[in-house]
Amino acid sequence: MIEIERKFLVKSNAYKAEAFKHTKIVQGFLNTDKERTVRVRLKGDEGFLTVKGQSTQNGLERFEWEKPIEKTDAQALLKLCEEGVIDKIRYEIKMNQHIFEVDEFFGANAGLVIAEVELSYPTEVISKPLWLGEEVTGDVKYYNSQLSKQPYKTWNI
Asked: Which residues fall within 8 angstroms of residue 97, CB to CB, at 6 or more apart?
């Protein structure tokens, strides 16, 4: 139940042409404590409840527990979430043995596009697509739980 993941900014829309799937995601947080977050997610017509632990110092690994829940339960739980619901479309792109998940954000986070790739072990080598930009693994401001509190549109960029 340990998630190993690297996160990158995206520098062009070229990923859209390479995507084999895209899904609308709406998610909120019942708890955004830095030691644990509890997330409710609607991914298409599926609901999920996820608990994530605190990341390692380099931001590469953390505990993750996720269970499917009924869509109606997810919709009800979203109404109980802290302020700052995340709205995005996730594009999935296969690159060799990895799947890159590219999130295009909307609403208060419009303009932000982030790619994530899950690894089997921390030092696993990945092939980087040309549209991949700066690595932001471990930069807390790019965590969805933080984007719900400090949206991208409020940053002084």
From this structure: none
